[in-house]
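Researcher: Quick one. two chains, 1136 residues in total.
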Amino acid sequence: MSMTTLLSDPQTATALLPEFTLIVGIVLMILVPNLGKGTFRIPLPNTNIRIPYLLGGERFTFTSSPRIPGIISVLTLLFSTSLALWSQMETPLSGSNVWCISTAGEAFASCAGMADPTLLQIDGFSRLVEIIFYGSLMLCAVAMWSRMPATPRFMIHAQVLAGRREDERIQKLLDNRRQVDFHLLLLMVALGMSVVALASDVFVLFIGLELASLSSYVLIAFMKENEEAPEAGMKYFILGSVTSAIGLYGISLLYLWNGNLQMTDLAASWQAMDGIDPMALTGVAFLMVTICFKVSAAPFHLATPDAYTGAASPVAGVLATGSKAMGFVVLLRVLVTITMPESGEAFWVPVVGLLAAITMTWGNLGALSSNNPKRMLAYSSVAHAGYLLAAVAALGLNQARAGDHVISELIVAAMLFHLTVLVLFKLGSFLVLSMLESEGRGSKLEDLYGLAKREPLLATALFIFMLALAGVPPLAGFLSKLLLVSGIIDATIHTSMSFDDGILATLQSLHWVVYLGLLVFLNSALSLYYYLRVGWVMFFEDPPTRKRLVYAPFLRITIMLCLIGTLAFGIGPLADHLMGLVSNAAIAFFA
Amino acid sequence: MMFGNPLTLLTLGPIVAALVFMFLAWASPPSKREEISQYIRLLIFAFSLFLLSLSTLMFLESYSGISWTSIGLNNYVYDNCVNAEVALEAGGCALVDGFGVSWHVGVDGLSFPMVWLTTLLIPVSMLVEWNAKKGAQFHSLILLMEGALIGVFVSLDLFVFYTFWELTLIPMFFLILLWGGDDRKYAAQKFFIYTFTASVLMLLGILVMYYFTRVPVWEGNITGRAFDVTLMAASSNQLGSSFLGGFGMQKAVFLLLLVGFAAKMPSVPFHTWLPDAHVEAPTAGSMLLAGVMLKMGAYGFIRIAVELLPGALVYFQWLIVILGMVSLVYGALVCLGQTNLKRMVAYSSVSHMGLIFLGIATMQPLGIAGAIFMMLAHGIISPHLFAVCGAFKHHYHTLEIGSMRGIAKHSPWLGGHMMTAWMASLGLPLMAGFVAEIAIMIAFWMTFGWLVILPALTLIITAAYYLWSMQRTIFEGGEEGELPESLHGEDPVDITWHENAGMIVLAGFAVLLGILPFIFFDMMSAYSGEFVSEILLDVLNEVRP
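Model:
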């Protein structure tokens, strides 16, 4: 790809506006905090003329303030989100707003008949998942505003803490460094995720996945104050890189099999092949290992609870929402775009169905027995991955490629709806925990005792997030599960079906995937126990202290926004609007 | 019109008002909290009286203007979304178009008596427990309860129905937990877990109906389904035995719904939460729990399970007879063995709810109307029973049947109320309970013949435990002037004026409905007559030609 074309082509620039905003943000993040009185002495003899070049040297107080990186990152993500949302709103239907970026860096308004292979494809689907990614990262960035004011105390020399003026300055600078590191990584995650969303080539997809994953490994280990953080980050890193290596090997097999890694090309070869080529099958199976680790499907989820527990709560929230959404995008790209047969059932339906059943049940049982709220939320996110996998299994039943996509679109829309509203209530509950964490609590259920007496509003918010996670009407979590099960039922039962007289005979005559829908329901009912337990201890146990939590105004506002979203997307016109957005995205996915 | 409807006001008005009052009580400065609390209590009471007058006006208006027999089945009075298919297409009453969720309210001969009963019981229970601790919060919760209960009875959209159904749990849970007796934590948890588990099963049944019913799709509805009861009923009517894809599925859904509603009613295998909840609940909570919350189960059973799945009703007729009979007999026998007055009254509710199942199982217009009248009559009598129990607890500090003797001598009003309520509940002629019982018995005899001996004999047991407990409590032993030990030497007092006022209202209606049952019986029998002639007869002819 020639860099000049990429930058000079106005069409490309317009099409990739949110991503360019991210890159500008990353550059600003590196430059702005380094602005200083750095000067350059002209190398002439006997002169002492110094030309300021404003980088390095003694930093300006304003630009090196510890708040600046957070502001840059929140604004960048806000701009990117709005641009993505705007391009989604501008031309809502598929087809009219599709851009393909070729390897030469040129943008085309249609992906058909391009001379060069395509790298990135921009359509309604990718824009919507980008909104999910950016939104979750933005909430995380806002939450870190009041979480990370200082360098780890134990790493600063005691004299520095004594508080001489010069040392204070140094400490502020250190704070700023730390903030820059964190928010730079956060923007890198955003960039990686958007590459995943846009990729139309499996290799590009993998690069984006790795960029996002490697940055997130560091983010997990970032809170060095917490002893568990480095351990969690290391564990997640080792397991993640092993699975990535397996996935990369799978990609190499696919490359050997097909000769290139274009998704459309792979899909065409897949349909054209007679039976299933073992090499292609092995490739896809290995790639599935990476994906299952990313969406934390059982039994690949074992590092998830440790990682979420060790990471700072907002980062854990991103892992549970944005990162999971990324995993599901890859899953849809690989399983539906590439390996869907022309007609009939996809070969992976039993595998994914089994994974779904194991994942949701294991996740719920794990959550039932965990006493740490973060670990409980981690297991509940495993369970939610199971619900989404059940929908994917139903997707495989359909003839997604044979003209009529209505039911497949419904299922994809349901998944997107679920992933979108999950950002609100899953991340919202992590944000509440984050407020507890800033006073060194939040890793035991006892820390939540009597929260309602200390912070009635926050406790109510957390309780409602819990109810939404459990799927209690009329909250957003109920509608998304309703839609997921709707999709599963639609995929398996046809209007023309009629059942035998007997109950057992009726139950036997249903396709087995229907029972995944039933399992989703039963698991939700089971999950009520541990979600309500959180509410119980918050409202009916005695608090360890009557002290209010940290002030953190932005974080409180964000939590309230999440709460309003959880309620508003559950019932009323906003739910309809979101419905429209996700169904357009789903239509674009199959276009 | 979505919100220009009296039923919407009756539903959302109390909920909004309760939240506002709760906020006011919470936000008031601690120094003036007591004083403000008094005003809030008065305001809440006035508001509940306003709602009572509104529902009574609706009743009078409908009584003069509407012929209940001519509106026909699946048509509702004060319907804000008439002809739902067209109205939903036009977007007039939709809440979430994409899923087919709508704000659809309306009443008919089945639900209107329940709505009126709720609006009556709220001010009465407030009167009876006028001096509760933390009065503003207590009465706000009762007001919140009113909105949720009316919401259950008027909503014709199963999504909204289920939401209100769960919403009723919250105020009741807090009433038991915060104002209950010594063992309140256990009772509140048990109450919540039992009813919530049952309602999850009910939700499963509702969802299966939602998923398997195809309705005419309108613009913006992407799932192709709707929660609207009228649309489901139309589909059920039209498809008959192939509704929900086949009779097998209908039976499965019916069983799910039966479990969900039977636990709420409660019927025998699922009844164990009721005595605990009642014994620990505050008086007003018990009154609402027995008066209206139990009726939610019976109402939901008739509205959803019976009306939408008549074929399954015919199939499971004997199951329902057995459930009803076991509840009736077992409840009465357990009553005989109780020493706690409130627990005995709670078990008598189980027994009376069994009669409702028997009435429905007769599949006669008279039997079903009798069952609905039983809901109303029990809804007036059982709060009276619990108010009496509450007065004993409040003034004599005990509920043990043996420990109080000759109360009538010391507290004549309380003794009189006890006698009225006890007689009404055992089915004394010219009181409301008798009308329901006799209607159910006649219909039962018409359907099952001499099997009617069983429920009729049970009425003797009922009379036995009521008379026995009454005699031991208010009459026997009064001559010696023996006072219960729990008084600790205090002078016995009679009930306060507000308790008396509330109970007199209840006693008055128990007698009024006993003498003039047709006030409500007309609309009930119109409903049941329509239901049997329009739907059930066809199904019966199909199944048993």
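Confidence is low (pLDDT under 50) at residues 150-156 of chain A.
Researcher: Thanks, that's what I needed.
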